[in-house]
Amino acid sequence: MRTRSRGDIVFAGFVYVFLLLVFIATFYPFWNILVLSVNSADDTIRGGIYFWPREFSFTSYTQILSDQEILNGVKVTLARTLIGTPLAVLVISLLSYPLSKRDLVGGKFITLFFIFTMYFGGGLIPYYMILKSLHLIDTFWVYIAPGLMNVFFMILVRTFIQQLPGELDESAKMDGANDLQIFIKIVLPLTTPVLATIGLFTAIGHWNSWFDSYVFTYKPELKTLQAVLVKILNQYQTSNMVSDAQQMANSAKRLSVSSDSIRMAATIVATLPIVIVYPFLQKYFVKGMTVGAVKS
């Protein structure tokens, strides 16, 4: 066994210290938000809360989870994530498989056509007009249909499929399998890592999306959680909402909330689901990004 030199030990110590500082810089903001959200609103006003709450209180979460606008936003966001993610993965994989065939007639032209859309677009107004002509404005499907295709994800999946041994297709065809059977029984199981990767990214995109809800929907029942959160984080609207919440609390349960506690609790409610899901898909995420990003 090779003895580690003093230089190796110093370098390793520097790396560990650097990684620890990066961890603190990325983790502490979330921790501080959590601490402020579970601290008593009256005590939070005094300031000086950094690492641990002085007075535990879940009043802000009670107020948040009893607000019908937020609950409706959770339902809409959950629905668009659960519906939009598998549909997008299916559409992307169905397009990626034929484009991965090097002998596909016009395959290069089709790929370049899709790549062109990554760099050039008509802008928000033409995009709005297209959605309006398709009767998607102010409907739930305005969240689903435009997000069914992501060119970058398509290229990632196509590259992954191209790295699979060509003998798999040949042997399957010799056994009488057609392209659809090969896609379902061979390609899909082998592309699980990259499909899980794009599925994770797509789900995060749906969960965190708020701009499309602001621009393309007007009905309150179609507003997503993030759109409601943006409304809460707006200082003027937050003040009005907190004032109403305080009146309700004082008249009903004698509970107090503040602007900061409401904002912090809403942020945790909007962030926590994705934080919980990510560890379960991390192994697929790492493998999919590593293998799918290498072109043979």
From TrEMBL:
TM region positions: 9-31, 78-97, 109-128, 140-161, 182-204, 262-281
Domain (ABC transmembrane type-1): residue spans on this chain: 74-281
Listed PROSITE patterns: ABC_TM1
Topology in the lipid bilayer: Multi-pass membrane protein
Keyword Cell membrane on entry: yes
InterPro entries the UniProt entry points to: MetI-like, MetI-like_sf
UniProt keywords, alphabetically: Cell membrane, Membrane, Transmembrane, Transmembrane helix, Transport
The family this protein is said to belong to: Belongs to the binding-protein-dependent transport system permease family.
Name of the featured protein: Carbohydrate ABC transporter permease
Organism of this sequence: Paenibacillus alginolyticus
